Amino acid sequence: MILVLEMSKGWEIMLSTLTLRQLKNALEETRPETTALFPEIASSERWTRIRSDEQYKEFWEKLEKEADCLTDQPLCSPPFSDFLLFGETGDRATYQTKRTQLFSGLHVFGLLAMTDERPDWKKGLENTIWAICNEYTWVLPAHVGLYVNEYPNGIWDQPLAPRETVDLDAAVAGFALAEVLHMVGPRLHPWVAQRAKAEIERRIFQVYFNDATPQNWELKTNNWPAVCASSIGAMAIYLIEDSEKLAGMLWRVINVLRQYLSGFDEQGGTPEGPVYWQFGFSHLVYFAELLKERTGGQITMLDEHKIGKIAQFPQFCLLTNGKVVNFSDAPDEARFHTGLMQRLCEYFPTLQLPPDEYRMNVIPVSWVEATRLMFWSSDQQDAETEHSSEGQEGVQDRIFTGNQWVISKVLQPDGRIAAFAAKGGYNEEPHNHNDLGHFILHVDGVNVLADVGIGVYTKQYFQPEHRYETIHAGSHGHSVPIVDGHRQGFGRQYRSQLLQHEVTEDEVRFELDLTEAYACSTLQSLTREFLWHRPSDEASQLIITDKAAFRETPSVFQEVFICGVEPKQIEKGRIAIGTVEMHFSPSDWLIEVEEVTATSHYGVESKYYRLMCNRTCVSASMESPFRFVINSI
């Protein structure tokens, strides 16, 4: 990450050389009383215009109904028995659902209060903030004791509750509360405003800044450091007037964001995929804009080459019909925050806005997200048209060498879009699945060869002995071999090596060494080559060739393919999987198909099919080619 500091004398200082004194000077040169934070929502005229905008009519009507419900039936804190459920049974949803409802008043009444000084909405906001301040903790039960090495065990059976931490939900709630106080605080009863500030100080600032012990998430490169550190930094910008103190606080935040950005490879890719990209990166952008405003434009974190690469990442992950590349814990559909994307376009004009089917068409009941969606998207229709991409490119290829991903999208001769994606890496990535060598084959809105994606988040799901027995995260639920009865192992030592990658006019070649992915003592080598043949005048086809060598002949060797469409045998050696035909040597394989039902974290049940190919004649050296041909219509 490079931070450009435009000092009054025209200096430009990279983040790698930025000193605490320089940060302090930048903050002191611009007094907080002379700067406007998030100035877009400070304008009552813009609130009036957005309140009457037809495209937001349904959202405001929904908010008013929710406000009426919250007024008629005030929500109470979830009971202690619900708080204990995670420790006793692993259930997260029961407590979290009630907690989300309780906190929803902050967003509902906060947004409505910006449009109208109705006494009921002011009262509702005050009651909500008071109730939030009454909560035992803002941290979810699933995240209590994150810093304990035995987490999530060794916590719930102890006589004393663990010390406080800061998790995603505490950080996001604090961010929203600080911003609402900044905008609406003077209209609230002073006891409410002062108590809210005191609780942010006690629950966030004292926990994070008064204890040098690193938070669990500060050591990671996933979305957690981005969301938590950015939210804490935003709270500090809103609430801390002393520039010297603020500089010390933001210095810790900025260094955590450096750590977060180190998790992206040089092409801007993240192994978390596009959905968690949005959650983490959006909060970095929100913080960066506040810091820019607080320093009068002297510090900008976004106008930098690697940030531009990261901003482009999701556009390569878009397939068609709302589908995205969804390796690891992620749904196979995504909707992107239009306000976020348009703000990034201001820094990177060549950035393409997602097509309509990928845009967030339901405004979230979230102060931070909703305000930026409405206010950063408003008055941008010309830019939206100019930068929008409707998938008209004939070919779009991207290889992310650091994270060992390949994604290629091709316009077929018959006008459909086909896409291929595959991954390597290591089996201890953020939201890890044991999936080295796994791939997706997408045709015209359907993931024909698919990734099952995200499972139900429970305590057990985050314990390896349970997690990797599920169809979602275990290698048996991915399109990878089972080697002499061995599935892929979990841990950083189970990794792949990128042997070669090449993009030519008609082909993409991507080859991985998967030997280290398996704890199989007799395995000498295992490579997987993907050859994506995609000439402009022919239907595309994918040829996968696995080469395995053993020190002694294995007892079994199995290839598994995860299908999003039921496979049907046409004849020996040919299987139809929707719009794709799979070709293989019929004498080498016995075929089985297992139907499985997978339930996602969002409660959605989907059917998948494990197409299992059992090698009939096993030897110490085997080559296994499979060809997937896209049928023309």
From TrEMBL:
Taxonomy, superkingdom: Bacteria
Pfam families in the cross-refs: Hepar_II_III_C
Compartments it resides in: Cell envelope
Every Heparinase II/III-like C-terminal domain range: 429-547
Primary location: other
Protein name: Heparinase II/III-like C-terminal domain-containing protein
Source species: Paenibacillus planticolens
